[in-house]
UniProtKB/TrEMBL annotation:
Keyword Coiled coil: no
Family annotation (SUPFAM superfamilies): UDP-Glycosyltransferase/glycogen phosphorylase
Matching Gene3D superfamilies: Glycogen Phosphorylase B
Enzyme Commission number(s): 2.4.-.-
GO molecular function, one term: glycosyltransferase activity
Keywords, alphabetical: Glycosyltransferase, Transferase
Record field: transmembrane: none
Superkingdom as given in the UniProt entry: Bacteria
Protein name, as recorded: Glycosyltransferase family 4 protein
The Glycosyltransferase subfamily 4-like N-terminal domain, residue ranges: 15-156
Enzyme class: transferase
Amino acid sequence: MKIIHLANHALNVGNGIVNVMVDLACMQARAGHDVTVASGGGGFEELLGRHGVRHVLLPQSPRPLRVPAMVARFNRVVSQIDPDVVHAHMMTGALIARFGVPRRRFVLVTTVHNEFQKSATMMRVGDRVVAVSEAVSAAMERRGIPKSRLSVVRNGALGTPRLADAIAPRLPVLAHPCIVTLAGMYERKGIRDLLHAFAALRERVPGAVLYLVGEGPDRNAMEQLASQLGLARHARFEGFVADPRAYLAQADVFVLASHNEPAGLVLCEAREQGCAIVATRVGGIPEMLDGGEAGVLVPPHDPVTLATALERLLTDPAGRAGLAARAVRDLEKFSVQRVSDGYLAIYERTLASCQPRRFATIATRGIDAARAGMVESVSHSTPL
């Protein structure tokens, strides 16, 4: 098959959507398919090239004034490649692919990565809509997408090409007992709740240290909160780390306190490193933790309960070891090979059922619809 993946960029900045796309493109090229990534570019271009994936520059933006140039560039790419499948991972690419082509000869597959965004409903333009967890699939069905058009391919990161040839970097030895979180510095990641929980925890486990690995627009606010809570020396903001395995390997407890989380790749990574995990019971997190067998699930927005769960694990070495042992069981379901196989099967079924060579759209009407959708998405957008 000839496959084009669409995303806004290919930056190596910890964006889970981009990481999934890069893994998928590399694995599909490895399987012998002709794979192209069309994006605004970024740090992953060299990696894609090494794995036989073509990268073409296609800057994508939800700004209406940029729509004509994006559509023209996309049509040139499609004319040159003549793909069987276009796989859009973000809303802008989905709308361009659906409405910007005068005569569509490919099937369009869209993946809903961030269901919590209002603009995620736009992903319904795909001939097949893929959710990254059963929870996301159910949410999209509630939004009006027929179940018959939905598929589920749960995220996975084991065996990722992004780290296949990388040697885990040497880091300073972490202080113990330590809690590690790996998350973007966004309010929705529950960093504020975690800091309040950690402040309460330190009254009972005064030697505990918290490492916050990640970057984002709310970092300054979170650092200020840590200072206000008297945690300036004990909550250590490490910034973005491209290869976080050394942090995960040294963690006494890994925590993900998100308010919403469709299917965080970091949970696969934490399980692979044998972490004792505490995470919130939201979105696809229970699925990623085998319903609570592979990690402790707590309510979101609840620092008190979170602090209690962290204290219990930090003060109970045997319980912590048992939880870590359960985390590494049955990990094959989180392999990138399984993810790739799942999507390839969806492509084949969609091609068989849609007869895409007969598709045609009216370009002018389609572009107007794309512009309208992009304007709406800007007003309701949420940071990734």
